[in-house]
Amino acid sequence: MATKDRITCHVLDTTAGRPARALRVQLTHTPPSAPDAGAPTAAATTPRTFESITDDDGRVKTWLPYSAATASGDVPVYTLDDVLGELAAEPTSRWTLRFDTGAYFEGQGAINRER
């Protein structure tokens, strides 16, 4: 049995009545805008982004660290478990999912970007 991360995602394409296969998804830990009193951990104050592609069942089971095109070129070496472990001492954390639906529906032939 394949392992899965502690945060997963399942996407359904309700326009087609099936799982959304091969949809790019980003998961970002969004730190609070104002740090709490005390000494917050690095994970609590640094945005961390992961990304994946949904499988044939529309599921994301594992996430890889995301390196933005504007980054220095260094590949992030942290895992989702690393970040969740650092956040364990925090009372709450905020995460954002971003779905690349434009590319997904364009690939399905539902969007024509040429005008």
From TrEMBL:
Classification via InterPro entries = Thyroxine_BS, Transthyretin/HIU_hydrolase_d, Transthyretin/HIU_hydrolase_sf
Q: From the UniProt record, give one GO term of the biological process aspect.
A: purine nucleobase metabolic process
Q: Which domain of life is it from?
A: Eukaryota
Could you list the residue ranges forming a coiled coil in this record?
none
Q: Where is the Transthyretin/hydroxyisourate hydrolase domain?
A: 7-109
What is the recorded name of this protein?
Answer: Transthyretin/hydroxyisourate hydrolase domain-containing protein
Q: Which organism is it from?
A: Verticillium longisporum (Verticillium dahliae var. longisporum)
